[in-house]
């Protein structure tokens, strides 16, 4: 269920166009064509060489199902480069919340800033203006003003960056100083970075317009968005596009409305690309591949009765269970055509015996979902409704049944 992204990284930004000519022709024409074909083959071999040695990596995630559907060395740690912008923003947001400050609160800048900020040292600016300059244009000096105001020293700020990544399950952020950045840059895998970005987008909905608008307005100023990926496709928003020399990193989000009113949401993350052009090409191509080649199916919704468990001492012998959140699976269209959902297997693990009373929403066990032999999700299941204590005779009967049964411990069904 994971399909690697294979790309040919060319040493030149010039596209090569291949034309196949018929070779059944006269000798003079063949003498002209054969050297040209050999030259084209040489160019192809030259183009293949850097692909083998490239350090680029990335992942495409369906944000609805949470599945990684396309991967290219997505578990290998690498410097996240410009993607650190989102980590810095998250740390700043967390500190603003801790201090009970808002984006509209102001601070006094310590340095002069050129257009579009147009600030002199000692003038005031609100946090939103400075953070928009950083998010939309990568202006680290603008973000540095907020960092100096909110954090007493570099050590405290580095701890805040590590805490932001730790909230996404990244145990070791591998922060290191780089000459190309004013801030410590983490070394994490693209897959971990995708998990972090998913959480960031959920926690920081106020930043949505920073990514979706071509010109972002803040503090009476207009900031041209430098993160655009596909300018003619309004369903795609570039979250971060940045880099230097041959180390470009970025992320882009596709939000495609569907006829049923739902939205297909795909996140592409790519690091260590050779150029801005290749980064944008990789992000755009992976998003379009995910949209065309994969489909997300809703399996269960809260309130759906998935199954029942035998219960003791209650006013009825069985209790239905459900899920707390919608459960989705993303499959390739080929898998859906070949197998549909017939290859989906469910296994419930739950402690036994289940004894009344049970309240609606109580966790009853863990449901493991497997497709074609591969585990793709483990989710808690909860009681669909309450189970009250039964009458004296019902409880007496079930006590006898329990005494002669072998139920106990963890049961799989």
Radius of gyration: 28 Å
Q: What proportion of the residues is helical, as a percent range?
A: 25-40%
Count of helical segments?
A: 10
Which structural class is indicated by helix and strand composition?
A: alpha+beta
Strand order of the largest sheet: 18-14-15-20-19-17-21
Please report the distance between the alpha carbons of the first and last residues.
Answer: 25 Å
Biggest pleated sheet: 7 strands, mixed
Number of strands: 21
Indicate the proportion of strand residues: 25-35%
User: Which spans of ≥5 residues are poorly predicted at pLDDT below 50?
Assistant: 1-32, 42-54
Overall 3D geometry? elongated
| Overall pLDDT score | 85
Topology (SSEs and partners):
Layout lengths: L2 E2 L22 H27 L3 E6 L4 E6 L5 E2 L4 H15 L7 E3 L15 E3 H11 L2 H11 L3 H13 L20 E2 L1 H14 L4 H5 L2 E4 L2 E4 L11 E9 L2 E11 L5 E11 L2 H18 E7 L6 E6 L5 E6 L3 E6 H6 L5 E9 L1 E2 L7 E9 L2 E10 L8 H13 L4 E4 L1
Parallel strand pairs: 1-3, 14-18
Antiparallel strand pairs: 2-3, 2-12, 4-7, 5-6, 8-9, 10-11, 11-12, 13-16, 14-15, 15-20, 17-19, 17-21, 19-20
Helix pairs in contact: 2-4, 2-5, 3-4
């Amino acid at each position: 269920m994971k399909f690697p992204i294979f790309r040919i990284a060319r040493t030149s930004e010039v596209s090569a166009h291949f034309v196949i000519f018929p070779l059944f022709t006269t000798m003079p024409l063949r003498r002209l064509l054969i050297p040209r074909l050999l030259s084209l083959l040489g160019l192809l071999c030259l183009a293949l060489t850097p692909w083998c040695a490239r350090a680029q990596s990335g992942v495409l995630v369906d944000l609805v199902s949470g599945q990684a559907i396309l991967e290219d060395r997505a578990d290998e740690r690498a410097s996240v480069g410009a993607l650190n912008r989102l980590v810095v923003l998250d740390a700043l947001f967390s500190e603003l919340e801790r201090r009970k400050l808002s984006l509209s609160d102001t601070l006094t800048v310590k340095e002069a800033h050129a257009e579009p900020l147009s600030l002199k040292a000692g003038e005031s600016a609100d946090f939103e203006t400075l953070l928009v300059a950083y998010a939309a244009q990568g202006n680290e000096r603008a973000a540095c003003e907020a960092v100096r105001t909110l954090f007493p020293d570099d050590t405290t700020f580095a701890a805040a960056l590590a805490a932001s990544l730790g909230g996404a399950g990244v145990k070791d952020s591998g922060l290191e100083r780089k000459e190309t950045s004013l801030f410590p840059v983490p070394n994490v895998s693209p897959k971990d970075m995708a998990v972090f970005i998913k959480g960031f987008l959920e926690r920081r909905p106020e930043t949505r317009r920073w990514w979706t608008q071509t010109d972002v307005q803040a503090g009476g100023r207009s900031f041209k968005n430098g993160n655009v990926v596909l300018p003619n496709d309004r369903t795609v928003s570039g979250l971060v596009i940045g880099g230097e020399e041959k180390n470009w990193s970025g992320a882009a989000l596709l939000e495609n409305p569907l006829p049923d009113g739902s939205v297909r949401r795909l996140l592409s993350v790519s690091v260590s690309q050779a150029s801005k052009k290749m980064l944008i090409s990789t992000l755009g191509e992976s998003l379009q591949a995910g949209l065309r080649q994969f489909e997300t199916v809703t399996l269960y919704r809260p309130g759906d009765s998935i199954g029942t468990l035998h219960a003791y001492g209650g006013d009825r012998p069985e209790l239905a269970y459900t899920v707390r959140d919608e459960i989705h699976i993303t499959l390739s269209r080929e898998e859906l055509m070949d197998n549909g959902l017939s290859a989906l297997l469910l296994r419930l693990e739950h402690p036994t015996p289940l004894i009344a009373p049970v309240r609606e929403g109580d966790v009853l066990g863990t449901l493991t979902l497997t497709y074609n032999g591969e585990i793709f999700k483990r989710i808690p299941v909860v009681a669909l409704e309450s189970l009250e204590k039964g009458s004296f005779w019902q409880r007496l009967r079930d006590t006898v049944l329990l005494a002669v049964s072998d139920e106990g411990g963890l049961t799989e069904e």
